[in-house]
Amino acid sequence: MAERVIVTLACSECKRRNYHFARGKKKEFKLELKKFCRACGHQTLHRETK
Ligand SMILES: [Zn+2]
Question: Within a 13 Å sphere around the CA of 16, how many CA atoms are in the beta-carbon half?
Answer without folding.
Answer: 11
